[in-house]
């Protein structure tokens, strides 16, 4: 329930790609054409989504197929945004709220936990670390049903508590931050100690500021994991007002089962926040994925 | 914003472990960890050994009855559970090699400089940021039996008959697998790009002096040097594929005739639709046991990393 496995693939090694060799023009042309063809294929579903969303329903089903919308209209978007039962902006807000709270608490919790594991000596330290790391081996499907039954008992069904707390003690973040903290220089910490700083001041004023790349990477992973979570909110939230965006969109797909224009408008709207975030964070996201900030 | 759980005790000289300080830092995590990680595992096993009816007053102990059901031919649990396992294994077996080789191929196409390289990287990475439900709805629409883009292209461009992808057994896997490749290829491609960038050019220069062909260079330099990252990609991809859920739920709803129903989908159906929490728990443990193998491999790879820096 923390990060979906598809998104937690973290590279163990590697730096940024360096560019070897000079540019060999004649050889490059077929490669360029191949890449263009692949790019067109990759973008085709996005194109089909946007153009369908811009078509009136009669144009969606018209034959021959309208490869370009002949009479583009924003009616589908208007209808989806003002739909009385189920409000896509409400779901977006819910997702944003849940993912933000989750990320802030999760990253704080992981930093507090990774700090003594990386920078202090105490009995049981290695055992505690290996227990936390070992918990990553527990397949989440094993805890799905008991956690659901716990939510029933806590009366947390249809509450954001169910979306935020069960995944908060994720071992991956502790592991990642511990690895990063291990690599920080000892000297600064010792100097601060001599000046009378206590351990919390060391964490707050020295360790955390030096760890911003790792903290941001973990925050991005946590936010994406929470934002994209699908299976868990699907079952612990049934109130239409409390749904998160990924689940909310599927209720549209049940309602607009034959109205693809509206369905595609809703998926397009649902994609806008991540697209915007991606455009801003693209360079960082790709670099973070290939280095995970684990080795510097 | 870090919650200050630490009461600044007078600093004790750090020799060995004569301070409670580290444990105070660990306490908040430990509470959540015990409640939501350790306890549910035991609780789930307990539920699987009892007849857990939400409405009944008593929950009698039945031992391994629900596990035995899974191995008793004729029970719906046995039939649908193993059917879903077969589907899941099929999906994993097809999608893992496909995802590994296509992402490696893309990375090979992109790691040398070329006009628009950043643009291409962004395009191939882009689908991965969509949520699984949006991706699923999109591919269901692409493969819609009557008016999807795929059938429109088949009939109007290539002059072929339309195919009812979503309602024919076997064919229904096509949108699920293509959608999954499209959705996840960018992550693996990025890992491969990083790994390719780490290979020293001197190997290739030496090989070129010996007159090695492009294929020989790939076969004897690139591929062996990529072995560690390939292992990592195979294991993480297998782990992800084995947990197939959202794609088949949204694209085909597990149909036609349960032919694309994943194990996790069947477990959730048994729990949340049929209210058979004990039976579903038993299946989750059986399934978890198989997944443990993949997870163990991934764990080994990550632990090797952790030890290296200690």
Automatic annotation (TrEMBL), chain A:
Pfam families: BPD_transp_1. It comes from Deinococcus maricopensis (strain DSM 21211 / LMG 22137 / NRRL B-23946 / LB-34). InterPro entries: MetI-like, MetI-like_sf. This is ABC-type transporter, integral membrane subunit. Residues 1-20 have a biased composition (Low complexity). PANTHER family: ABC TRANSPORTER PERMEASE PROTEIN MG189-RELATED, ABC TRANSPORTER PERMEASE PROTEIN MG189-RELATED-RELATED. It is a multi-pass membrane protein. Keywords: Cell membrane, Membrane, Transmembrane, Transmembrane helix, Transport. Belongs to the binding-protein-dependent transport system permease family. Residues 92-281 form the ABC transmembrane type-1 domain. Gene3D superfamilies: MetI-like. One of its GO terms (biological process) is transmembrane transport. It is found in: Cell membrane. SUPFAM superfamilies: MetI-like (SSF161098). The chain crosses the membrane at residues 32-50, 91-115, 127-151, 163-181, 202-224, 263-281. GO terms for cellular component: plasma membrane. Residues 1-22 are annotated as: Disordered.
TrEMBL record, chain B:
Keywords: Cell membrane, Membrane, Transmembrane, Transmembrane helix, Transport. It is found in: Cell membrane. One of its GO terms (biological process) is transmembrane transport. The chain crosses the membrane at residues 23-46, 89-111, 118-139, 172-199, 220-242, 277-297. Residues 85-298 form the ABC transmembrane type-1 domain. One of its GO terms (cellular component) is plasma membrane. Coiled coil: none annotated. It is a multi-pass membrane protein. It holds the Pfam family BPD_transp_1. Belongs to the binding-protein-dependent transport system permease family. This is ABC-type transporter, integral membrane subunit. It comes from Deinococcus maricopensis (strain DSM 21211 / LMG 22137 / NRRL B-23946 / LB-34).
């Amino acid at each position: 329930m923390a990060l979906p496995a598809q998104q937690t693939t973290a590279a163990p090694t590697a730096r940024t790609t360096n560019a070897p060799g000079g540019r060999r023009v004649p050889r490059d042309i077929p490669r360029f054409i191949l890449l263009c063809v692949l790019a067109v294929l990759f973008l085709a579903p996005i194109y089909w989504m946007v153009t369908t969303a811009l078509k009136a329903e009669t144009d969606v089903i018209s034959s021959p197929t309208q490869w370009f919308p002949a009479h583009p209209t924003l009616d589908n978007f208007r209808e989806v945004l003002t739909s009385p039962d189920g409000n896509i902006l409400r779901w977006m807000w819910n997702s944003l709220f849940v993912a933000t709270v989750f990320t802030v608490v999760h990253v704080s919790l992981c930093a507090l936990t990774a700090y003594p594991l990386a920078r202090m000596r105490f009995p049981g330290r290695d055992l505690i670390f290996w227990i936390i790391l070992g918990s990553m081996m527990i397949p989440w499907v094993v805890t799905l049903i008991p956690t659901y039954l716990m939510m029933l008992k806590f009366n947390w069904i249809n509450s954001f508590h169910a979306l935020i707390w069960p995944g908060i003690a994720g071992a991956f973040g502790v592991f990642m931050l511990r690895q990063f903290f291990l690599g920080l220089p000892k000297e600064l910490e010792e100097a601060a100690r001599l000046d009378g700083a206590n351990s919390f001041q060391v964490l707050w004023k020295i360790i955390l500021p030096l760890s911003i790349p790792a903290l941001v990477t973990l925050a991005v992973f946590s936010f994406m994991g929470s934002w994209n979570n699908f299976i868990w909110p699907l079952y612990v939230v049934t109130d239409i007002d409390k749904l998160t965006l990924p689940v909310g969109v599927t209720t549209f797909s049940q309602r607009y089962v034959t109205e693809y224009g509206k369905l595609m408008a809703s998926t397009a709207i649902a994609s806008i926040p991540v697209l915007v975030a991606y455009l801003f964070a693209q360079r960082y996201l790709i670099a973070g994925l290939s280095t995970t900030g684990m080795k510097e | 914003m870090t919650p200050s759980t630490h009461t600044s005790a007078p600093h004790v000289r750090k020799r060995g472990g004569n301070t409670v300080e580290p444990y105070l830092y660990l306490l908040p995590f430990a509470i959540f960890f015990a409640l939501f990680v350790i306890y549910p595992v035991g609780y789930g096993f307990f539920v699987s050994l009892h007849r857990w009816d939400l409405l009944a007053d008593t929950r009698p102990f039945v031992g391994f009855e629900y596990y035995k059901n899974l191995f008793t031919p004729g029970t719906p649990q046995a039939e649908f559970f193993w059917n879903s396992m077969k589907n899941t294994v099929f999906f994993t077996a097809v999608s893992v090699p496909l995802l590994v080789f296509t992402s490696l191929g893309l990375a090979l196409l992109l790691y040398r400089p070329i006009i628009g390289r950043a643009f291409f990287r962004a395009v191939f990475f882009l689908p991965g940021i969509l949520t699984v439900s949006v991706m699923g709805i999109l591919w269901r629409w692409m493969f819609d039996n009557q008016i999807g883009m795929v059938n429109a292209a088949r009939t109007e461009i290539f002059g072929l008959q339309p195919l009812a992808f979503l309602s024919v057994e076997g064919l229904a896997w096509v949108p699920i697998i293509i959608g999954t490749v499209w959705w996840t290829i960018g992550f693996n491609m990025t890992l491969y790009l990083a790994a390719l960038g780490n290979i020293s050019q001197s190997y290739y220069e030496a090989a070129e002096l010996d007159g090695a062909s492009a294929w020989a260079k790939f076969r004897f330099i690139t591929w062996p040097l990529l072995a560690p990252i390939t292992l990592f990609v195979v294991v993480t991809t297998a782990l992800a594929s084995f947990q197939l859920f959202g794609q088949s739920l949204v694209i085909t709803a597990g149909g036609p005739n349960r032919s694309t129903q994943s194990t996790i989908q069947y477990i959730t159906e048994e729990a949340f639709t049929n209210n058979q929490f004990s039976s579903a728990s038993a299946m989750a443990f059986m399934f978890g046991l198989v997944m443990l193998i993949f997870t163990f491999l991934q764990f080994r790879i990550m632990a090797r990393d952790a030890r290296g820096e200690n």
